[in-house]
Amino acid sequence: MWMQTEIKNSISDNIKSYTKEHTQSSTLAFFRIGFGLLMCYSIIRFWSKGWIQELYLLPDFHFSYYGFEWIKPIGEYTYLIFIVCFISSLLITIGYKYKIAIITFFLSFTYIELMDKTTYLNHYYFISSLSFLLIFLPLNATFSYDNIINRKKYSKVPKWTADSIKLLICIVYIYAGLAKLNSDWLLNAMPLKIWLTSKYDLPIIGEFLLQKNWVHYLMSWGGMLYDLSIPFLLIYSRTRLLAFTLVVFFHLFTLVLFPIGVFPHIMIFSSMIFFSSNFHSKILEYIRRIIMMSHKSFYNYSSKKIEYYKIEKQKNIITILSLFFILQLTIPFRYNLYPGELFWHEQGYRFSWRVMLIEKVGYTNFKIKDPESGSSFIVDPSKYLSQFQVKQMSFQPDFILEFAHYLGKEFSTKDKKIEVYADSFVALNGRSSQRFIDPNVDLYKEKESFKNKTWVLPLKDEIKGI
């Protein structure tokens, strides 16, 4: 008992001591500017490619997240959500009304993400998670228009504020690496073998290099080792430059090979927060000289006076962020609550930093049956869904169930309730196609929930790993 008490007191003292440590505020200001600019670019890119209309306005049906069915595109007014998101990104960049701006960005971006489950991407989830975290951090402590308005500038902020961003980035990398510790990825080089051989049209490397079996295994093992090691290489000052070089090479190379949007840019920039605060100060000073901001309220790097930023209700904020990180650490393991192969039934797959681990090809049609007469007919999903939606729906159980309910409501009347059955076949990571959904289960009677979807037929194979 005495030893346990001593250990608890020691841990408590260390935590209290840590929360009193400070670091230069330039690190948070640097991250704020880069994050804001990247989000501005992301919104402009999304709009310019016509994806707002293609993904949210043209389809008549949108797949919803469980519990968020009320979040839908709002017709032409959907553009207003993107405008709000862009403006808030711009305000974050310059540090004007930062608290309002970051909350507005989090709400608008997350709303966009939740409008249609078809568009789910890990980096969208990362941006939502990160922007929620940034709500509680003083990224406007220095080098912001808020400094001018409040006539205050702070050279020091609590060290845990910068470390919390680093922790989230480390979680993303490490969990992505752990997810690659499976037999498909390491022993069969799947699905990289499928994707790389399809890149034969790339100059120089496509026809000769990417067709080699040893290259597929090298990239599979290299990707796993990269994800698991890069956080530690970035943390350690002596290997930081090497680590950043690897980050740039890895993400630019994946950008060339795969259409993964702004994710490489986000991860390259995010890794720079591990650099020293002196480096961030130099970057801000360079920016200041370019835009000729000489206002005294901006950070004066030559000043020897130290101003500490005091976070109000720090204990409450630390408690909230502790719960946030506990969720980040535990949610990826919720798949253990479901029997069967995760890559197959995908229950617990999303929001777990499992990046580019599966290649699934599916074919799903629906049979509408009148239980009274016994008559039935087949429905082609492409008559109701976009090509992209059909592709995503064909191999994801929750998509199939939601669309089955849509068809059930579409063809049912007050006097007649129909039955909906799925004729579904799926191929996973190069395996032969096999029946995916039990054809004898009326999906219109099944309800979406966190319970195991027993109507998903088991995979006739085993994938070993985490």
Descriptive account of the structure:
The chain is 53% helix and 7% strand. The chain has a domain at 359-435. It has helices at residues 2-19, 26-48, 51-57, 78-94, 98-114, 122-134, 145-150, 159-179, 183-187, 192-197, 205-208, 213-235, 240-257, 263-271, 277-291, 314-330, 342-345, 387-393, 397-411, and strands at residues 22-24, 156-158, 360-369, 376-379, 419-428, 434-435. The strands form two sheets. Strands 4-3-5-6 form a four-stranded antiparallel sheet. The protein has a two-stranded antiparallel sheet with strand order 1-2. The two termini are 37 Å apart. It is globular. Residues 299-303 have low confidence and may be disordered. It has 466 residues and is of the alpha+beta class.
In short, what is this structure?
Helix content is 53%, strand content 7%.
Look at the structure and give the mean pLDDT.
91
Main sheet strand line-up: 4-3-5-6
Distance between the termini: 37 Å
The percentage helix is 40-55%
Total helical elements: 19
Order of helices and strands: HEHHHHHHEHHHHHHHHHHEEHHEE
Bulk shape: globular
**Alpha carbon gyration radius:** 25 Å
Topology:
Elements: H1 2-19, E1 22-24, H2 26-48, H3 51-57, H4 78-94, H5 98-114, H6 122-134, H7 145-150, E2 156-158, H8 159-179, H9 183-187, H10 192-197, H11 205-208, H12 213-235, H13 240-257, H14 263-271, H15 277-291, H16 314-330, H17 342-345, E3 360-369, E4 376-379, H18 387-393, H19 397-411, E5 419-428, E6 434-435
Q: Which key phrases capture this entry?
A:
466 residues; alpha+beta; four-stranded antiparallel β-sheet; two-stranded antiparallel ribbon; 19 helices
